[in-house]
Each structure stands twice: as structure tokens, then as C-alpha cells.
Amino acid sequence: MFIGMDDTDSNERMCTTYLAVLIADALEKEGFGTVSGYVHLIRLNPSVPYKTRGNAALGFEFNPAADSAEFRTKLISFVSGKIIEYAETECEKTNPGAVFIFEENDSELKNRLNLFFKKAVTDLVEIDEAQQLLSQYFIPHLSLKNGRGLIGALAVCGALMNPGWDETYEYLAYRFPEKWNGTAVLPRFVDTNSLIAADKATYPKTWDTVDYSEKKNPFPVCVPGSGDPVLFGLRGESPEVVLEAAERVVSEPVYLSAVFKTNQGTDAHLISVGNVTEMQPLHSYILTGTVVHSSKTNEGGHDIFVIQDQTGNLLECAAFEPTGSFRKVIRALASNDSVTVYGSFKNNTLNLEKIEVLSLTSIFAFENPTCPACQKRMESAGKGQGFRCRNCKTKSGDKIKIPVPRKIKVGFYEVPPSARRHLSKPLIRMKIH
């Protein structure tokens, strides 16, 4: 069978990954059966407006100890009770949902859930669509409040039942409950130097552990700042490498830990399009075009430029202030540069996650000519009269054109780890350095 759940956290507290691990462990300890493989952490469309934090759904394959109707009812009741106990339902945006799929050999349901999974990662899915699937296939489920979590719960089951997508792994360490579940959240302790050592020992098979973009002050990206149970998380290509990195981390005592199979760092949310008219708000895209207006920095420190697609439509692209030094790349773009942009589309603007500079136009500056005799710069001889050398009396008709070196090169550029979305594929995973 497959168990999926979503939307149990709030903006400030709790974490569905934590609850999924608690439930998986409790099911085994209570004799309900055994978990098969890794708990799945599936990130859905990052542009969905009603998400709490990272828009992740959790699920796992489970081998039940019995197959009677009574046993199934008892198992569902046990899982539902845990979700009701831990979910942050007092938060307006938290709408938990869980599903229990026993018919793993139903090929029609498997295919439908695969399409549902892919749509939930790239598109907008309404609750009605989830409820229709639940009704059509008589899928047992838990729905609290408006039940929006049913969308993610079904999507993660689609991922579980249809392997073969680009997979990565994350090790998550959790704090003791008394450090985060009281009236005051105690500060985390994770030694930054140990994170740097873990990163250097396992990179590039792990990534986004530390942000080095501010070289004088490396920032530990893998340590959250909210009041949830996560102590730190390490992302990588395999379970073995994230565990190897975790062994090098010095921190406060770890209450619980787990390795998750994920779609993080895969660009699964991006849709390739040929022109701007194909783009819809709250989706993420890849589009190639030509720069027509170079970057301007607004009062908030955000850099905005405009590209033109192959059909002549214009698109505003933005590198926001938190992307830090990435904005230097954007400021170095010039009209007629050819680029491919990657990012989410909102308010008629593409919010950049990375960019590939395909070609650079030549830029020239115009200067007064130099005297061929004394090599000094000539000066104007008067309006419309060209230039002359004051010493040698030599003359020249026009200014000379000097190539201006470009501050960027052809190639890929990405936002720093601290500004990267969970689903965005780092260049190191694209074998680009």
C-alpha cells in the first residue's frame, strides 16, 4: 500500500517531513507492518500561493502485516490520529490531507496518479480534481478543514507508484521536542566549520550546504531559521553521500534523523516554451530570447531587464535583491545579447532562478583619435571640423571605435544557494562549473 500526506505545518512551526517519519516509525513499532524503501519528499509547484513554506508532500510505501478490512480501518485510524494530533490546524493556511492506496496493481489508477503527480509539480491543481480521483477510485482518505493537503497526498503517491524520475536525496536531522515545541524556541546549535568541512569532503556529490557567495562570511544554507523541528538538512546524489556528510557535522544532540528520496534539485517544475504567449501566471518556464532593454536597478535593489522572444513579444525578467552577486551578471547584459532564462512567472515578470548567456553582442566606445606622430590624443577642431593635434598640427576626420571588454562570458549563471528554490537544479548537477 501507499500512504501520502501533506499540509500539516504552518509558516512558523512543525514540518510534514518530521510527522511522516514519526508515523512511519510508529507504524512499525506498533506492529502494523514495515516501511519499504525511503520516505519520499516531493516538492510541488513552488509558485502556488496557498503553500505554507516549501510546498512538500510526504509519503511512503508500506507492507501491512494483514489484509483484512478491519486491519485496514485500524491502520487508517492510527495514521489519521497522529496527523490530527500533530498538524498545525489552528493556522489559517494549514489544511491537512492524507490518502491510503491499497490497490497498487491497478494500472489505470497508477497512470492517473502519475499524470496528477507531474501536474502538481508544474501546474495548478484544484481540490475538486483531487476529490474526483478519490471518489472515482474509492480511495480512503483524511481531510481536515478544506482538505487542500489531499492534492499533495495524491501527488506523492503518484511519485511512489511511478519511479524513474530524476531523484536526489536529503538527510534531515531533527531537534528534541522540548527545544522547539514549547512557548519559546531555543536557538539551534550547528557548528558552521563542521558544515564547511562536510561540504568540502563530499561536494559535488552534495550541494547547497554552505553559501560561499559572501566569501568573508560563509552562510550555512542547510540550517533553517523557523521554529520547526529540523536541525539541519544535507542534500546529495545518494543516500550514502548524505550520510557521510552528516557524520562530519557537529551539532546539538539529534533526536531523530532520516534520509528522504526527493525530486529536489531537478528543475522538474520548469516548462520549456517558445514564446511569451504560452506563459501563464504561477508557473515556471524556460524561454530563449534577445535582450532589448538592459538592466535597471529599482529602489528595492531588484534588477529588471527585458527580452524579446522569437515572435517579437516582450518579457520583463527580474533578479531580486536576495540573489546578491547574481545581479552583477544581470547588470552586465546589453541589448542584442542572446539568453535563455529560467524562473517563475508572476505579475507579468519572470523571477530568475538561473540564466544561460548564449551569445554576447560587441560593444564599442568612441574616442578622439591619437596623433600618428606623437601618439597624444587629438582634440576637437571645432564643430564639424574633425580633430587636430595641438603639437603636430596633424588632422583626422572621425572619432575612433574602441571595443569595450564585456564583464561576463557566454555560459550559465545561477542564483546563490541561499536564494535557490528547492526544485531548482544547481549547475553542479548539470555538470557545469
UniProtKB/TrEMBL annotation:
<keyword id="KW-0819">tRNA processing</keyword>
<dbReference type="InterPro" id="IPR024913">
    <property type="entry name" value="tRNA_Ile2__agm2C_synt"/>
</dbReference>
<dbReference type="GO" id="GO:0016879">
    <property type="term" value="F:ligase activity, forming carbon-nitrogen bonds"/>
</dbReference>
<dbReference type="Pfam" id="PF08489">
    <property type="entry name" value="TiaS_FLD"/>
</dbReference>
<keyword id="KW-0963">Cytoplasm</keyword>
<protein>
    <recommendedName>
        <fullName>tRNA(Ile2) 2-agmatinylcytidine synthetase TiaS</fullName>
        <ecNumber>6.3.4.22</ecNumber>
    </recommendedName>
</protein>
<keyword id="KW-0436">Ligase</keyword>
<dbReference type="GO" id="GO:0005737">
    <property type="term" value="C:cytoplasm"/>
</dbReference>
<dbReference type="InterPro" id="IPR055394">
    <property type="entry name" value="Zn_ribbon_TiaS"/>
</dbReference>
<feature type="domain" description="TiaS-like TCKD">
    <location>
        <begin position="2"/>
        <end position="112"/>
    </location>
</feature>
<feature type="domain" description="TiaS FLD">
    <location>
        <begin position="147"/>
        <end position="269"/>
    </location>
</feature>
<keyword id="KW-0067">ATP-binding</keyword>
<dbReference type="GO" id="GO:0005524">
    <property type="term" value="F:ATP binding"/>
</dbReference>
<dbReference type="Pfam" id="PF23783">
    <property type="entry name" value="Zn_ribbon_TiaS"/>
</dbReference>
<dbReference type="InterPro" id="IPR053870">
    <property type="entry name" value="TiaS-like_TCKD"/>
</dbReference>
<comment type="function">
    <text>ATP-dependent agmatine transferase that catalyzes the formation of 2-agmatinylcytidine (agm2C) at the wobble position (C34) of tRNA(Ile2), converting the codon specificity from AUG to AUA.</text>
</comment>
<keyword id="KW-0547">Nucleotide-binding</keyword>
<dbReference type="InterPro" id="IPR013696">
    <property type="entry name" value="TiaS_FLD"/>
</dbReference>
<comment type="similarity">
    <text>Belongs to the TiaS family.</text>
</comment>
<dbReference type="GO" id="GO:0002101">
    <property type="term" value="P:tRNA wobble cytosine modification"/>
</dbReference>
<dbReference type="Pfam" id="PF22641">
    <property type="entry name" value="TiaS_TCKD"/>
</dbReference>
<feature type="domain" description="TiaS C-terminal zinc ribbon">
    <location>
        <begin position="368"/>
        <end position="408"/>
    </location>
</feature>
